[in-house]
Amino acid sequence: MTDGSSANEEAICHSAFLPIFVLRVNQLNSSQVQLNLETELTPTSLRREGFVTVSNCPALSRSQHSSRWHLELGETKKVYVDGTSVPLSTVKTQMKADYSFPGGTPNLPLGMACRESRFRQFSTTTLKSSQGPTIPLLLWGINACWPNQSYDGGSHIGITQVPSSMDNGFDWLNNTYQGVTVTLVQDKIGSAQRYETQKRNQYPALPALTTAQTENNALFFYLRGQYRRVNGQTIFKDPYYMPNNAGTGWILNPNDPGATGYVNQIRANLSDPNCQ
Question: Which residues of 144-158 are buried (b: 16+ CB within 10 A; e: fewer)?
Answer without folding.
Answer: bbbbbbbbeebebbb
